[in-house]
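Standup notes
- DV: blocked on the single-chain target, sequence here:
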Amino acid sequence: MCALFGWLDCGKVLPIRLLKKLTQALANAAEERGTDASGISYIKENHVTIYKRPKPAHKIKFRIPHDTGAVMGHTRYATQGDAEINSNNHPFYGHADVDFAFAHNGVIHNYQSLHTSEQLPEPKIETDSYVAVQLLEKSGKLNMDSLKSMAEKIRGSFVFTALDQNQTLYFVKGSNPLCLIYFEQFGLYVYASTESIMKTALKRVGLHKETSIKIKVAGGEIISIDRNGVLNRDRFNLYDDFFYFQKSNTYYDYEKYDITAYTEYEQLVINYCSHFGIDKSDVMILLDYGYTANEIEEFLTDTDLFYEALKIALGEDDDPDQMGFDLCDICGW
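- DV (later): unblocked, structure below
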């Protein structure tokens, strides 16, 4: 369970000092989904620059040049590949018809079989996410078609982001969360994995007071935004990773926790909840009650909300209908 974050400034009216603060604020807020490593990428003189370290974001001071027009970032909760080996951390460098940086939130189950079926070279990078970079490099292009082809070969959970040397930002949305907004008055796009990360970061820099438009990104959708702010959409066939995961349950300790009936995304939430002092069995109760993994992630950042939801699931709340309304109102659903 990692986090993606970043921005694209096509309006060129905001001071770079504010954009630097926004970068750090997004990175720090994104720690709620991962502290094993943090990194950003940006374009400097038409070259892809990547800065990443095996540290939580708040221990890194992210610096960007004065003419930076876009930042693509990632905070990592390591599930595959030792975070202390910095090459395993995001963003990754890739080269097709253009140079690009690439980041992923999720888990790819079939990365090993893809190396065989697609005849990909054995990488030095241990992270499962890197197979997506290799697929794009093999195609020789970074565009909607190559991203579509790559996404349709992946079995797992994901949101992918890519930033090319021409300062075009791409989003490929699978089953994992993504929040994308646009400040029309500034010509500024901002994104984060969750609304809670977004709200925290915008409040820290004062942008929460400004009017923004929420851009919907559905599962199975690809979005590109170029340096001028032009947004294009395409679609791909999103594989249902639940059925794949039922056949390839190799990632987790099933003997201790009976979690084989849950999707990979739900299992990440179950395994990650202890970082917030939450018992795994309580998360499973909420999942069985009907809350989604994305909703429960929001609850993990506010334990009062979590336990209020748990009371509803256990039938201990006097007015569950009213409670449900309050939770939706508070979380913005």
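- Follow-up: Residues 241-257, 318-333 have pLDDT under 50 and may be disordered.
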